[in-house]
Amino acid sequence: MVRNKKAVSAIIGYVLLVTMGIVMSVIVYNYLKTYVPADALECPGGVSIVLKDYNCSTNQLNITLKNNGKFNLAGFFIHASNNTEQKIATIDLSKNLNQPPGEIYGSAVVVTLGNENFMKPGNENGYIFDNLPPNIELIEFIPARFQEENNKIRFVSCSGAKITEKINCN
Amino acid sequence: MRDKKGLSPVIATVLLIAIVIVIGLIVFLWFRGITEEAITKFDTNTNIKLVCEDVALEAGYSGGYVHVSNIGNVPVYKLKAKITSEGSYSTEFLGDDGSWPETGLTQGGTYSGIISTPGEEILLIPVLIGSTATGEKAYTCEDRHGIYVSMS
């Protein structure tokens, strides 16, 4: 009798031990896997945009942007500043876009809606912005493009290719 | 001797049970803490502490106003401002007066707002929204993820 009892107890002990081990490893695995770093959303290094020319007239701004980089672009974020002391442009001009040409996607201006990068290298695109705030002195562009990340199309801001231009729009 | 021997196993048993209960409680609380504290973000279920590293903000200060631009790809739910003055600091959230964008600072989002507290330097610390088992939760990044803005 004593022998039988000891044998059963040992099996239960092993089963409990293995079960507890599995449960603990599952919990620890699920927790630790969140700490595995994922690749940050970034544009490729060859992204570049340039303000080819601009023209201000009666609260209206006409700009021509050229994609002088190596990759297709979807559009850009455009911010302005009308304060000489202010180094960060915070006036979002995408709301002032006179469409078409261009469409608004979130707070960005894109060539056409749809998850495509229509601004090809060498392309020049013109846009018109109406009802501008007075005395714009600084304008900032951040190119943006659609990229596939983890089998999903994501809209990526290319902060490394940001350009800032001083303009005179009185 | 017999009486003493009779008492000892009872005390031992009580102690044993008490120790097991206390250890069990500690382990339970530890595990519960582990599972609840994991706040993740994006489809990749990346821990929000790692996402804080990817926040890209630009900020400046002029004429009593702080200007912030989100040039990166991580949406910022709120910004905690730690305003340092000589020998002390005060903390406030930007846009507490209702001027903060309802959706936070998304990609390309900007904010300009007044800072009424005088000081020498502002540390802007991003607050992000992530997912937990119980729903969405805000997480304030560590100070090292913040950006310093001079108020002078």
Summarize this structure as a short list of keywords or feature phrases.
heterodimer, A: 170 residues, alpha+beta, Immunoglobulin-like, seven-stranded antiparallel beta sheet, three-stranded antiparallel beta sheet, 10 strands, 18% helix, B: alpha+beta, five-stranded antiparallel beta sheet
Structural class, judged by helices and strands of chain B? Answer: alpha+beta
Structural class of chain A: alpha+beta
Number of domains of chain A: 2
Q: Using CB atoms under 8 Å apart, which protein chain pair has the greatest interface? A: A-B, 38 and 35 residues
- Report the order of strands and helices of chain A: HEEEEEEEEEE
Beta-strand proportion of chain B: 35-45%
| Overall helicity of chain B | 25-40%
Shape of chain A: elongated
Mean pLDDT of chain A, nearest integer? 85
In terms of quaternary structure, the protein is heterodimer
**Count of alpha/pi helices of chain B:** 2
What is the rounded distance between the termini of chain A? 102 Å
Main sheet properties of chain A: 7 strands, antiparallel
